[in-house]
Structures are given as C-alpha cells and as structure tokens.
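Preliminary data (for renewal application), phosphoenolpyruvate complex.
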Amino acid sequence: MRAAAVPDRPPVSRGSGSREARARESGGRVTTEPLTTPAALAERLPVTDAVAETVLGAREAVCRVLAGTDDRLLVVVGPCSIHDVDAALAYARLLRRLADEVADDLLVVMRVYLEKPRSALGWPGLLTDPSLDGAFAVGAGLRVAREMMVAIAGLGLPIACEWLSPVTPAYLGDLVSWGAVGARTVESQVHRQLASGLPMPVGMKNGTSGSVQAAVDAIRAAAVPHAYLGVADDGTPSVLRTSGNPHCHVVLRGGPGGPNYSEEDVRDALARLRAAGLPERVVIDASHGNSGKCHERQRAVVAEMAERIAAGEEGVRGLLLESFLVPGRQDVVAGRPLVFGQSVTDACLGWDTTAGLLRSLAEAVRRRRQTQPPASATSPVASEPRQHA
Ligand SMILES: O=C[C@H](O)[C@H](O)COP(=O)(O)O
Ligand SMILES: C=C(OP(=O)(O)O)C(=O)O
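Predicted structure:
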C-alpha cells in the first residue's frame, strides 16, 4: 500500500480556491520582471568628464541664482514631456545656442520630463512607455532616457526633470541639475524623503488644490535627514539614509482658484517661507494653473514677470515654461504619424515664441541691473540640516 502524499505545506484555506486565487479576487496583483541595476546602466552609458562638468556646474549655478548671489534668472524650459528622442535632441540643439546667447542674464536648463503624473489616466511618459502604445517596456525606456540625457548634457545643456518614481533617481540622478516634485506628489511623504537626498536643487510645486503651504511644508520636510526604502546602485534593496536638502524652493504653478503669480501671491508665498524660517525665493511656472493650460497664455505670464523683474521685484528667482518645436499639442492615435516636435501631453509654446520670450527675460534682467547693484552675497540660504536624532 502506498503512503498517502504529504503536502509540503498545509493547505492555506478550507474554502474555495488557493491563497493566490483569493488574493486575485480581493484586489490587484503584481508580476515582476528583472531590470538592469543602476550601476550596470551607468557603466553602459557613463557620465563623461564633460557631462559631469555640465551637470555639477549647473547645480552650483542654480544654487547661486536661488540664493541671489548670481543675479541671473533661472529659466527651466522645454517640452511638457519627451516622447521622441530625435525631436528632443533637435530642440536641445536650438536651446543650447539660445542659452549661450543669453548666458550673461539667464541660466537656462532644459525640461527633459520622462515620467508624467496623470490626473487620472494617460500616457505615463517615455521612461515607462517608450513606444507610446501601452507596451510598458520600462527597461528600454530607462536605457533610451539615459542615452538621451547623456547626449543632451553632452551638448553642454543642463537638464531638469520631475522625479516621480522614487527609484528613478538611482538610474538618472547623476544627469540632472534641477528636479521638481510635482503638484500631485508634493504632499507625499515618499517624495519629500526622496528630495531630501537628491543631489540637486528641487522645486516643490504648490498642490493641485492651489495650496502653497503644501510646498512650504515639503521644503521643511526635505531639508532634514530621512530614511526610506529603496535600491542601492548595485540593485540591493536598501535603507536609503539622506542628509537633508537645503536647496528646495517653492514653484508657484496656480490652481483651481486661478493663477498665483501676482505680486500679492508672491508676497504671500514669501511670507509663508519667512514664517517657516526658510529662504525667501520662488520660481514661477508660466504653464499649468498659471496659464489655465492654454499654452499661448504663457506669453502673458512671461511678459508680466519680465516687467516686474525689470522693476526689481524681490524673491522671484526663476521661471518655468513649456515649449517644444511646434506649438500646441496632439493626440497619439494608432496608425497616424505624429507631428515632429509637437507635445503629446500639455500644449506647448512653439520655438520662435520661446526664443522671443527668453530674449525678453534676458532684457528684463539687464534692465534690473541698471537700477540695482549686483545682488549681495548675504542673501539668506537654508540652514544646515539637522542630524538624525
Ligand atoms: O504637465 C503635464 C500635465 O499637466 C500633468 O501630467 C497632468 O496631466 P493630465 O491632467 O492630462 O493627466
Ligand atoms: C506635471 C507637471 O506640473 P504640475 O505638477 O505643476 O502639474 C509638469 O510640469 O509636467
């Protein structure tokens, strides 16, 4: 007589179905696929000395502009999202020439946004879905993204992006000179912890509700050390311990109540920063809630800000613009070719308008210099972060 088979493990339930089947019925589930490690990707697509100089030099320059010890204006400009590497590189080449032309007055950093936070549903960005068709080839997206960033920084053009996945900076952080925490994530503990360890200045957007306090709170949170779960460069699941980031700042992007770039709005934001003991400086996003998502309205925002900057308004250290080669936006439709250099997410300004606006901002900085002495080196900077208790 054969012995009865002894199960490896006791049955997980007496009712219908296995544990896996029951889990499926009561929520979502995950499948996994291995990804190259950050170290392996960096080895394949390394940062050259020239690229490192661009990235690090621009980080330091952004800090000086934010602190007011460099009297130029920070201008973060580029597509709402990158969906086509060739178009991004064509834009980068144009921007590089313009950045050189205005370099005495503007510190130009290109938006190279690869992860899109969506209000509900929509294409999540090149990093997650590089073929724009829902195939979600994330490994290829990371490779393409890093290769493109190396090429853009290789032109001598510094890079800005929004950090969405807390794992992405391990793969791309060494190529970025300015980061954003977006309106949809500025209240997220994970993103505040992430910002506290990022090796670059980080703009904290006001929340989608319009709350500027959320951005101020995020700056306070990111200025101190944290510990959170992540991956090390060799891919090992790790506790990431951060130092705190003293170079975070508010980005006013408007909200449901309308724009928030008026003099009164800026004064209110500076007062909130003062009350929190933080450096009094803001960056104005000409797009999003400040333009009612109408790309053409960014012109009016820039025109008003140029006037106010020329008149010496305190506290505004930079602007953000959404711009691509071709104005407007387009939908991605299977089988229909895309217009080269036009956004597939938010509508953007076209190149010619962008160039004119940057020249007008440069002119505003020059006019300000005529009436004001160079900014002093005594502008407030964030205090050193506290150590872990
Ligand atoms: O900047 C881009 C968009 O404003 C952001 O990703 C939200 O887009 P959505 O509201 O179209 O989803
Ligand atoms: C999503 C963006 O901005 P916000 O977080 O302000 O909506 C963006 O700049 O792409």
